[in-house]
Amino acid sequence: MLICLGDIHFNDSRPWSVKTGYAFINWIKKWDKNNENNHLILLGDLTESAFLSGIVIEMLMQFFSCLRFKTVTIVKGNHDTKLSRSGSYGLTYSFLKNKDFKGFENIKVADTLKVENIEGIDVVMMPHITMDKGKSLHDYEALTDNLYFNKDLLVGHFADTSLQTVPYELIDIDYLKAKHVCLGHVHSSGPHYAGSVVPNSISEVGKRYAVCYTKKGTEVTEHREALPNLLDYYEVKYPEVLPATEAVVPVYTILNCKDEEVARAVYGHDIYIRKCLYDVSIDTESLHSITGSAEKSRNLSVKDMFDNWVKTMSIPDNILTLAKRYI
To answer: How far apart are CA 141 and CA 139, in angstroms?
Structure first.
């Protein structure tokens, strides 16, 4: 079996990031798919930043050390790429390409366009292209070599035209006629996307998946296996009880609360608080006219208020999508 996992984004930039990273490592150690009968493709952005702290390096090494797959292929992502002082580009895991570095011989890096056969499945690998020496992701829209056409699977790290209205640079790969497509870079799961292994922001809530491929005869089949709920975001109105959760790392937005110390006096110091929101100034009369009553308006969440505001505005789809990501 060939398995694709989306962006991981190991980092220590937020209070809950390290615990989330280790929760993912502890899960994959025990995952029944993590064995020498299967192959793994990581779809890029293993790290959040190109410049790594000691603890992120430690997470990365522990992650690599626990992978028991027959082969692991990392498709280069944009967050994995760093620019050296000499002007050349490197990778946060470039040591894997050093033949003298022992212990991770089953892990390979796909940082250039190529085709590989993995367990009979022909895979086109399209890593992220950093703007350098006239090259760009749009080079992928003009391939003429038959080597890249009509393959079983195309994997890569970019946004393709299947997304329609998103604030990304969209790359057209439809002409390559791949039977299956599985991409990183976009964190929400979809027909061409595995989605990130955890939500990287409050706008990315939803199920996460591993995308699995098997080949029988000439037919390649795809199925998705739900990943555990390692990180999730919740809203709670102070001082109501925190909602029940199955997430390993729950993160809360506390509404109707002035600051964290006030919230922690009720909820304790061992929870992760994303933000406290005490007061949002709005045109209450306009809001009441939309919702129908003052009572309904008082019960609106921040998301509800945003959605109601959108109804009164004329906003282009690409701007609206971007606004939803940040709200």
So the answer is: 5
